Amino acid sequence: MVDTVTLPASYQARGMDAKTLKALRQFVDQRLFALREDRYSWWQHWAELARYILPRRYRWLVTTNQQARGQEINQYIIDSTGTVAARVLSAGMMSGNTSPTRQWFNLRVEGYGSDETHPVNVWLSEVRDRMMRVFQESNFYNSAAIVYQDLAVFGTAPMLIHENFENVIHCTNPCAGEYYVANNDKMQVGVFYREFTQTVAQLIEWFGEENVSELVLRMWNQGGAEVQKEILIAHAIEPNRGNPKVIPEKFSYREVYWERDSTEQEKFLSIRGYHEEPFACPRWDISGNDAYGRSPGMEALGDIKQLQMETKRKAQIIDKIANPPMKADAELQNKPSSTLPGAVTYLVKKDGVGFAPVYENYRPPVQELMLDIQDVRERIRGSFFNDLFLMFQQLEAEPRSATAVDARREEKMIMLGPVLERLQTEFHDKVIDRVFAIMSRGKLLPDPPQEIENKPIQVEYQSMLAAAQKAVETAGIERMYQVVGNMVGVNPDIRHKPNWEYSLEKYSALLGNDPRLLVDNDTFKELVEGDRKQQQQAGAIAGAQGAADTAKTLSETDVGGGINAIQAMLGTGQEGGV
Question: Residue of 117, 288, 329, 385 with fewest CB within 10 Å of its CB?
Answer without folding.
Answer: 288
